UniProtKB/TrEMBL annotation, chains A, B:
This is tryptophan synthase. Gene3D superfamilies: 3.40.50.1100. The beta subunit is responsible for the synthesis of L-tryptophan from indole and L-serine. Pathway: Amino-acid biosynthesis; L-tryptophan biosynthesis; L-tryptophan from chorismate: step 5/5. Residues 77-415 form the Tryptophan synthase beta chain-like PALP domain. Keywords: Amino-acid biosynthesis, Aromatic amino acid biosynthesis, Lyase, Pyridoxal phosphate, Tryptophan biosynthesis. The keyword Lyase applies. Its cofactor is pyridoxal 5'-phosphate. It comes from the Bacteria.
Length: 458, 458
């Protein structure tokens, strides 16, 4: 047998805690603000929406947060996930680079999302809530939370951005198969939805609009709490099992990654993989470049403003300092539905701002080309979101080839593309829209950034 | 941590050989016959269609057949697959039974099919052929062989039964993504297809018709050879890696299975799991019940005749002794497309005939119900084919509950249902057709069984 290509951790190496990078940050994360007062949001303001345990995790700066046993029990269904070396892809590219990928597509619903979903469903059930309300774009989060809700006996209601609801009917069927209810947003179920529909009856929706609907429902129904698929600190935290496992697996493989890559929409899978490596760098000085790969059609990290903005369109929630395109920004209907959000997680934005991570944006066709190259070599058909990470990894490997250097690249295969076949059909038929996002559209969205000046915060 | 639920074999335990149950059979398998002469088919007759290595495997009665290193290298991408104990499902059922499943959905294209596909593509490439022609029903085989073809640089052409081609456009897209060509059958590309279309221009096709098209093309193009997704001995042989791994994993788990279950269409995933256990029983006497689960709409093992019949509709290929509904039988459009074939693999038929295995047939709704129960407990959405195995496993577990006995059940999760969402949508909407197959239809198909009396064979 030639060199190993698969690194499987034994079950007993499953991480027993999540890693909180806030413990190791050289500069603290700017606080989330109450939009009315301009003051940092406190625990009390969040209790109508979230269970106390999650709120405490949101504010925590402790390095290690213990994973409760019932969550570990569920994680064991599919975790630890494999780490693989993409030898066929390396050969195809003729690169001296070593390309590793963490295979989060091996999770039950086909993406990394159950890492967070299982944790949230557990804490929400423990807090005594009966219902979980949330939003989904492409549906990876929606199906993960539908599954997690089934496991913990919660009624799950998912507001799905209407354009995705219509583009991806099978994601909806998957959620329903797990027993969840899926509603196209904007809907008539909420004041926020009705207002949006009154202004534009044909609105195709956005994650920001769906978020307003979910917040409204969770805030008004005492039995319901809000599920967050990304953006806040704790969904990012729950994904650090990815990177903690990968740290051990890279050690098994005998390499420290020079470059770590993940695709970013909200930032949760990227941070999940990168944070434990970045923490080691911050604490022990072992250098690693972490690259966040985003779509050129929704380039919050590479072209957004770093400013306080709302996460939701109706401005019902608080404001966070982040790279944003403005909460009124309507991203074009690219197939990487999971990457279509106007803002980036405050934690990821902060890491970018203080120079700990880098960002790069790609057009769609280049991403599909990379994804298909990967599929033909490794077998797994990647999600359109993951294709951004693959594109970045291939580009880095080709640079290694040009330079004649053998760097070690690790990327996160955040999910498979089995529910995104229309995207591949469109790409193969030459129908993928690859227009550049023009500055005028962006400027118009920036003009809607809140003018509220936060108090006590520079 | 409570009791283990996942049994992962280390890479170096990957089987180095396939297991050939013919070495341990108490009675030999009846030969395949040349329809014109009634005499057993010899190696020479098969050489226009298949590489010599595969033909030799087809006739072999050696117990162990070595897996060539390049095939092992590819297997390592996803093998060994996990064996899991379905603890949540056991709890839900309240059964004392132990339910284990071998997770073949973890393979790149989402089913067990790459086990065979990689082997066939390798041998066909080694034999110098440039093209591989084959047929697919639901598309699991088609996508696996498309992937394997990409790995070994073969042009792959897949005749897909028209009803599935139209029902499952995304399976076609998947094949095309791997670089294969997919043609709805009956087609105008072959004499057999043109003849069928002349008789019935709206024919929705069958695997038997598609097989005639593929045989014709492979026989007339010297650059092409025929890929077989099931039925013959060697595709069944190549799947024994499943059972060989499971043997070791059940040992890790500390249980010998009392009952082994697989769904059957042609018989390849069932045999792949069961044969190594049955071999141990035949050689060493350790008792195991092996149950083949088939759809009531296409019940070859439970209601078919055990007789010599053709594998293809145009009767271009040889005749095999098998449980058959007649090669003119048109199964109804059930969603378990992989189980829609008029005949059963001769080896499986023989095992049934000599009393080594059992068979059971299920209606569709009961299978979907079982599959959804499984999905909500274990996360993985099973293929409609696999739901037949799950139904059988749940029924057995419920019998254990009634009897108060703790039997150990092992079933094969042959594949996931990510490409079968329309099936789940139809089931959830109450639109699954569950009519019983009437005896009149069956009698009409039996009337078309070949009257040719084979010579030299009773």
């Amino acid at each position: 047998m030639s060199e190993a290509i698969k690194f499987i951790l034994p079950d007993d190496k499953l991480p027993k805690h999540w890693y909180n990078i806030r413990a190791d940050l050289p500069q603290p994360l700017p606080p989330v603000l109450n939009a009315a007062t301009g003051k940092p949001v406190g625990v009390e303001e969040l209790t109508p929406l979230f269970p106390l345990e999650l709120i405490q995790q949101e504010f925590s700066t402790e390095r290690h947060i213990e994973i409760p046993r019932p969550i570990l029990e569920v994680y064991r269904l599919w975790r630890p996930t494999p780490l693989r070396r993409a030898r066929s892809l390396e050969r195809l590219l003729g690169t001296p680079a070593r390309i590793f990928y963490k295979d989060e597509s091996a999770a039950p619903t086909g993406s990394f999302k159950p890492n967070e979903a299982v944790a949230e469903a557990f804490y929400i059930r423990e807090a005594g809530a009966k219902k979980l309300v949330t939003v989904t774009g492409a549906g990876q989060w929606g199906s993960a939370i539908a599954f997690a809700g089934a496991l913990f006996g919660l009624q799950v209601k998912v507001f799905m951005v209407r354009v995705s609801y219509e583009q991806k009917p099978y994601r909806r069927v998957l959620m329903e198969t797990y027993g969840a209810t899926c509603i196209p947003s904007p809907s008539k179920e909420t004041e926020a939805g009705r207002r949006t529909l009154a202004a534009d009856p044909t609105s195709s929706g956005s994650l920001a609009i769906a978020a307003s609907e979910a917040i409204e429902l969770a805030a008004t129904d005492p039995d319901a709490q809000l599920g967050m698929g990304s953006l806040l600190n704790y969904p990012l935290l729950h994904n650090t099992v990815i990177g903690l496992e990968a740290l051990e697996q890279m050690e098994m493989a005998g390499y420290w990654p020079d470059v770590i890559i993940g695709c970013v929409g909200g930032g949760s899978n990227f941070t999940g993989l990168a944070a434990p490596f970045l923490g080691k760098m911050l604490r022990e000085g072992q250098k690693v470049r972490a690259i966040a790969a985003e779509p050129a059609a929704c380039p919050s990290l590479t072209r957004g403003r770093y400013a306080y903005d709302f996460l939701d369109a109706a401005h019902m929630g608080p404001m966070a300092k982040m790279h944003t395109l403005g909460s009124s920004f309507m991203p074009s209907g690219i197939h990487a539905g999971g990457l279509r959000f106007h803002g980036m997680a405050p934690l990821v934005s902060h890491l970018k701002e203080i120079g700990i991570i880098e960002a790069v944006a790609f057009s769609q066709t280049g991403c599909f080309e990379a994804g298909i190259m990967f599929a033909r070599c490794e077998g797994i058909l990647p999600g359109p979101e993951s294709n951004h990470a693959i594109r970045a990894a291939i580009d880095e490997a080709l640079r290694c080839k040009q330079e004649g250097t053998a760097r070690t690249i690790l990327f996160n295969l955040s999910g498979h593309g089995n529910f995104d076949m229309q995207a591949y059909a469109d790409y193969l038929a030459g129908k993928v829209d690859d227009r550049e996002l023009d500055q005028k559209t962006l400027d118009a969205a920036f003009a809607n950034l809140p003018s509220v000046r936060p108090h006590n915060v520079k």
